[in-house]
Write a structure and sequence with these properties.
The chain is α/β, with parallel strands linked by helices. Among the domains are: 58 residues, lambda repressor-like DNA-binding domains (434 Repressor (Amino-terminal Domain), Orthogonal Bundle); 127 residues, Rossmann fold (3-Layer(aba) Sandwich). The protein is built from 13 helices and twelve strands. A six-stranded parallel beta sheet has the order 2-1-3-4-5-11, sandwiched between helices. It is elongated, with a radius of gyration of 23 Å. The termini are far apart. This is LacI family transcriptional regulator. GO terms for molecular function: DNA-binding transcription factor activity; transcription cis-regulatory region binding. Keywords: DNA-binding, Transcription, Transcription regulation.
Length: 332
């Protein structure tokens, strides 16, 4: 059974990323730490990939994309397809290739990142989501490895990132519904650990508080980015409340919510989605949705990363991409 970097790190009492940096002969690692890691490697008979070590000082012209989806879900959600299209557009123009992998959970993502770093198969990494207390960001920062994030991290110092103004985007959508006369507005978001969900929920709450509406926790639900999960979340809302409108953080969630409304309610309930995926125009009725310009998110993310890799003299570390509500149906 082969020895892993994590096992070497445990014996040497250092982090796995430190082991990776020692293997890459990173000058920022002290000689004392290097000797400690080398000693652990020798004791465990651990031998780094020789080809990988020979590539330490070379570039691969390849960028890694870590997708937080299983293979079954990857091509179901158009958001990631649009992100990848934008990434590919700019990367191809600059002569770079994209290597992507998908994962089941955050810990697995960290393992894949460690593998890519150790093997030197990519020059940098793109993370398309940001979580609260994100393990991937922490790992890459500690390793001092080039990366960019799609989404605004909690601590942006020294990081490259691209995002929408998610607070303002949701705040504007809720205000739009309020101006149409709505007051009983429900919210269905993605995982509460995702920064995008946190920011959009804050925008929803602020807009409701501004008109003096007390937040009803029964009107707030979370869901996976799937139609089935959106359906279940909307059912939970309808079992305890009677909203006249609902805002969601993803079109797939909105599709499921629409199905639940059709089955469980005789009242018209306005729905607004996010991402403006192509299918929204073909729903019956067509779904209003916020266009977040997903392709631009991918395009400018890889642009920031490649600029860093090629030492371009640009001082831009982030981009905020505009959003726009695309109204496809009357709201009542």
């Amino acid at each position: 059974m082969s020895v892993t970097i994590r096992e070497v790190a445990k014996l040497a009492n250092v982090s796995p990323s430190t082991v990776s940096r020692v293997i890459a002969d990173n000058p920022k690692i002290s000689d004392a730490t290097k000797q400690k890691v080398y000693k652990a490697m020798k004791e465990m008979n651990y031998h780094p990939n020789a080809i990988a070590r020979s590539l330490v000082s070379k570039t691969t012209k390849t960028i890694g994309l870590i997708l937080p989806n299983t293979d079954e879900d990857l091509f179901v959600n158009p958001f990631f397809i649009q992100i990848m299209r934008g990434i590919s557009h700019y990367a191809q123009k600059k002569g770079y290739y994209i290597m992507y992998t998908y994962s089941n959970n955050e810990d697995q993502e960290v393992e894949y990142i460690a593998s890519l770093m150790n093997s030197r198969r990519v020059d940098g990494i793109i993370l398309p989501v940001v979580r609260k207390n994100d393990k991937c960001i922490a790992y890459l920062k500690e390793a001092d490895y080039p990366f960019v994030v799609i989404g605004k991290p909690e601590d942006t110092e020294g990081l490259l990132w691209v995002d929408n103004d998610n607070f303002h985007a949701m705040y504007s959508v809720v205000n739009y519904l309020i101006q149409k006369g709505e007051r009983k507005i429900a919210f269905i978001g993605g995982s509460p650990t995702l920064n995008v969900t946190i920011n959009r929920l804050e925008g929803y709450k602020k807009a409701m508080e501004n008109i003096g509406v007390k937040i009803d926790e029964n009107m707030i639900q979370v869901a996976e980015f799937t139609e089935t999960s959106g359906y279940d979340a909307m059912k939970r809302i309808l079992e305890n409340s009677s909203p006249t409108a609902v805002v969601t953080t993803d079109d797939l969630i909105a599709f499921g919510a629409s199905k639940a409304i059709n089955e469980m309610s005789q009242e018209h309930i306005s729905i607004v989605g996010f991402n403006n995926t192509p299918l929204t125009a073909y729903r019956n009725p067509a779904l209003s949705s916020v266009d977040i310009n997903s392709e631009e998110l991918g395009y400018f993310a890889v642009k920031l990363l490649i600029n860093k890799l090629e030492n371009e003299k640009e001082y831009i570390t982030n981009y905020i991409i505009d959003t726009k509500l695309v109204e496809r149906e009357s709201t009542k």
